[in-house]
Amino acid sequence: MQRHLSTALTLLLFVCGCGGPDKSGSGTAEPRRGLAMHLPRVGHTQTRLPDGRVLIAGGFQNTGGLLPPANSDIEIFDPKSLTFRVVGRMTTVRVLHTDTLLADGRVAFIGGSPGTVVDLFNPHTGRMESGGEISDARAMHTATLLPDGRLLLVGGMKEAVTFHEGDLHEERRYLKSIEAYDPGTKSSRLLRTSLNVPRRGHTATLLGDGHVLVIGGTWSNRTEIIDAVNETVAWGPPLGVSRTDHRTTRLADGRLLITGGTGPSGKSLDVAEVFEARTNRFRTLAARMNHKREDHTADLLDDGRVLITGGEDNRAAPDGRDIVLDDVELFDPKTESFSKLPPLSIPRDDHRSTVLAEHAVLVTGGEGRNSEGLRSAELVVVTPAKPVPR
Question: What digits encode the pLDDT tens for the residues 343-363?
Fold first, then answer.
């Protein structure tokens, strides 16, 4: 983590750390408004570069219609000047793709387009490089960086628009396939094994033993464990609640926090769980989140707490429509409790967020209340927790 804020962020800590206390007294937050990207973005990616800047790529410009406009450009947010600057384009538009920071500082963009082309952005040269191709076109998949430098691509969906009976139709197929992409050779290979069930909107997290734990993305509560070296897949421990479009956050003590998502009924969840590798089981937390949500963000702060922002509450409006949220809350792993913070400047769903430094979190884009894509961005600055007296 960057340990020293720029002058601009230091000023923000002074100006924006003035929100009212949350219910637990453990911190405050106030969003810094007035920032904007060059284009609206929904379902884009956000990557923190080693020098502290943030790379933002792809996404829909809005979510209306069968073929909404999508972006191929990339822009960089500079926390020193608090500005966004377009720096290039990917070879294709991408939505709900993956972004992975590689060991050499490059960023790999995979999937989220009709094709199989991989883009590699080199921040040292400011140029986009060809990354070869993957085996399967996919979106809403996961890309997990393995200890040997390969990326493990898991599940997702294929989406196509066809024309028959005089009209356009959208077709989706969820995937069971797993492949390993090697950025060194710029090649990819399907593993000899596959998932037990197709998954999209899942999470895939590298465990301490090198295996990858796949959570959710299906209405089954069964998880799966992938051994990429031996190319095997085994059933993992069951979730307390099956879910999709949730978030999994690795805590400072190594546990995994699973928040929200959509449950089997199609409604959003306020139930959270933790996974402990030592016991190899999930445990449902007694405390509920302050709001039911899915497609939110969850970021680990320097003090070990997790900042949760936005998302949507499915089918919660009186007319049965989804409610886009501006709610912000904070999870404390010491007390395993959730506390409510001041809201975002506007409601956001399918937005993205990145921790910059010293509890400052950049929140960009997303879908608004009327399915519009958002250009706006904001900084949420959380006051660090006070040390507990001994």
Answer: 999 999 999 999 998 779 999
